[in-house]
Amino acid sequence: MIFEDQKSVFKLNVGLGFFLRNIETCELRYYYASNNSKLFSEPFLIRNTSTLEHFNEALLAQDLLEHARLQRPNSKWVVESITNVTYFVYKIPDHPIGCVTIDLPDFVKSNKALVTLERNRNTGERYQDNLCLFRCLALYRGFSPKSLEKETKKLCTEYFRQDPNNFSGIPLKDLSKFEDMFKVNVVVYELIKHDGNVGDSTTDEMKDSKVCDSAGATTTARLVRRSLERYGNTLYVNLSGNHFSYISNIKMYTRSYLCSKCQKLWKDSNALLKHEMNCEGKGSKHKFPGGTKNSF
């Protein structure tokens, strides 16, 4: 659940909560998981499922009882019980987005409006670079998925001014520079899989418009980044973890768009964009004489 809830690369550490018992007085003393008693001296950088598995392996290799025992003030105290584990998640909001060792979820892979760009269509091998956004742009400009590489590297060189093999990815905050260079609006969405209860309410037009996968779960799209530019062309991309995929048909992408502020669902992307420009988040809006609005 921790991994699925994160929208970007993050760092992860663990702390223990436990009771110590004094062998002479039988006094119990509780130690909560704190910043000063984490299990690992340095947090793990989690980029994908592979790095998460590495973290899990390191966690399983730890002697939790010994870790708690080392927190004793003296030898008169023994570990009575380990009561809980706390995960410390450190978000990295402006990390470079690329596509090295990605592992997309099945509901993203099965979306017919997406060109996922996980593997080279000619060789079948997984991409080992961070050029996914430039591949999206090449596709948008009409290049075939089987003839992307030359144009992709050309676009990256134009943007990066260095060897594309050294490109580490592009943070969301730098997309305005990308837009300015290539004269294209970039709108970023992410797909969310849920049980249909993403918010407190839906718009009337959404009541009969749900998209479900084979397991019966609902998939909706959340706006990650809207473009503030006014170019004549718009590139739509899907963000999953640390990877951009190309949205080839925004109308087929999903029939359910989630407002990140109030959690209402909207039927199409244009309706969501117009709504979010004025949305004030959760809560009821009250109008008072003079036109003033407050949220409670």
TrEMBL record:
<protein>
    <recommendedName>
        <fullName>C2H2-type domain-containing protein</fullName>
    </recommendedName>
</protein>
